[in-house]
Amino acid sequence: MLARFKIFSALLALSALAGCVDMPDQPSTRPGAPAGDPRFTGVAERDRVLFEYRYAATALRAGNFDDAKKLLDDAILRIGGVISGPDEAARRARGLFTAEREKTFIGEPYERVMAFYYRGLLYWRDGQPDNARACFRSAEFIDSDAEEKTYQSDYVLLDYLDGLASSKLAADGSDALARAEKLAKHPLPAYDPQANVLVFLEFGPGPRKIATGQYGEQLRFQVSASRVRSASLSLGEQNLYFTPWDNLNFQALTRGGRVMDYILGNKAVFKKTTNVAGNLALAGSAIAADNIYKEKQRVVTDQYGRQRVVTDVEKDQGNENLALGLGALGLISKLASAATQTRADTRTWDNLPQYLSFSATRLPAGDHAAILQFFDAEGRAIADLTRRVNLHVEDPARDTVVILSELKR
Fold first, then answer.
1. What percent of the chain has pLDDT over 90?
2. CB 405: neighbour CB atoms within 10 A?
3. Would you say the C-alpha torsion 133, 191, 180, 186 has a positive or negative sign?
4. Does some domain include residue 253?
5. Are 270 and 96 contacting, i.e. CB atoms less than 8 angstroms apart?
6. Are strands 400-405 and 197-205 parallel, antiparallel or unpaired?
7. pLDDT tens digits for 220-249?
8. DSSP code, position 399
9. Residue 60: Cβ-neighbour burial (10 angstroms; 0-12, 13-18, 19+)
10. Assigned domain for 8 exists
11. Which of 28, 160, 200, 255 has its CB 3.0 to 4.6 Å from that of 180, i.e. a possible disulfide?
12. How far is it, in rounded angstroms, from Cα 300 to Cα 308?
């Protein structure tokens, strides 16, 4: 009975512990975060880049370009530090008992690509197409490690802009244009070095990350259909049309496996194995506990010659030791299983678009009133998204970069 009580008490403690193991994947906060920008008060250092991504996209759409540059510059610097140097948090996350969400966030490849893409647009806006081209090439490199060769470096717009920047710099951009044309699902406009207004448009909801699998060890992407499928920008008698050049949902879904997926898969195997082993050990402990005390009957004759049956209870020390040993082994195995952190990191840059598009034109100096319209899959205008836009061209000899987004609210 003593062994049974010990095992029962241990299981109660285990059940309380197991209920605290798998926490939802949300960005962590803590007091006393980096000083300076009040937006980062309470943001854990490991989540800093994630918040910089989100704030940068919001600032870009609001026209707060200096803020967006500052945020993206810091995020890109931190990305480089994590990739090029040892990251202690990432090392710990590979261990059995540390969750992947504890590592320093730099994002999946499509998220890092977008950081460089946005920074490239801002460099171009500042009259630095050479730095913009460097950003686009960095983004192309990030996308070059897809598991399947078919999906390596397959952003149409990155290649196209690489070549366009080269043509603006009086260099040969034909190779980049040829790559873009090979990837594109629609004809691409030829480069016009004299086009001085570059319009970048994004629309639709981007991908979200979810954890699936028995233990949440599989990173998957949840995508939503965009009600917007195309757009137009009307400038008096001139109309610019926008169809999807790149699809971030497609980019997320076609990346293939990550190194961390294999690590999490092994963690899941360990979690399952130790859980099963713990169950078997505890079951064996219960069986052994039932056999600790054995009854033996014997016939006793009293002084009057009368006989009666007496039952003696004998303790089997071996079974008691076996019950306690198996109980301890089962408890350790169950604790190890419960403490193994298998859940994939689902922290997401959650205000990215689905589609990227582009158009270029020539405009004289001055303000140009325009109407931006979005269309559904049937080509019908979506009335609640229609808006007026003003394009200001300061110097016709210099490129004017216009960044428009359906996600601007």
1. 49
2. 16
3. positive
4. yes
5. yes
6. parallel
7. 888 899 999 999 999 988 999 999 999 999
8. P
9. buried
10. no
11. 160
12. 5
Q: Which residues pair with residue 173 across a beta bridge?
A: none
- The total of structural domains in the chain comes to 1
**Polymer length in residues for the chain:** 409
Q: Name the burial class of residue 13, with classes exposed (0-12), middle (13-18) and buried (19+) by CB atoms within 10 angstroms of its CB.
A: exposed
pLDDT digit string (tens) for 108-144?
A: 899 999 999 999 999 999 999 999 999 999 999 988 7
- DSSP code at position 391: E
Number of neighbouring beta carbons within 10 Å of residue 334: 23
Mean pLDDT to the nearest integer, 332-346: 68
User: How sure is the predictor about 361, in pLDDT bands with cuts at 50, 70 and 90?
Assistant: very high
Those residues whose C-beta lies under 8 Å from the C-beta of residue 342, and which sit 6 or more positions away, are 213, 215, 216, 217, 264, 267, 268, 271
Per-chain mean pLDDT for the chain: 81
**Widest Cα–Cα separation across the chain:** 130
Segments forming the whole domain that contains residue 389:
13-265+343-405
Cα–Cα distance measured from residue 248 to residue 207, given in angstroms and rounded to the nearest whole number: 7
Segment 54-69, tens digit of pLDDT: 999 999 999 999 999 9
HSE value, Cβ hemisphere, 13 Å, CA-based, for 156:
20
Q: Would 305 be classed as within a structural domain?
A: no
341 is written with which tokens? 């952190």
Query: Residue 228 belongs to a domain with what CATH number?
Result: 1.25.40.10
Q: Which residue has the higher pLDDT, 357 or 316?
A: 357
Question: Which residue in 62, 405, 399 sits closest to 198, CA to CA?
Answer: 399
Selected residue with higher pLDDT from 194 and 274: 194
- Under DSSP, the state recorded for 247 is E
Quote the crossing angle between the two packed helices 156-168 and 174-183, to the nearest 10°: 160
Report if residue 121 sits inside a domain. Answer: yes
187 CB-contact burial (10 Å; exposed 0-12 / middle 13-18 / buried 19+): exposed
SS3 content of the chain, % helix, strand, coil (to 5): 45, 20, 35
Average pLDDT score over residue span 165-194: 94
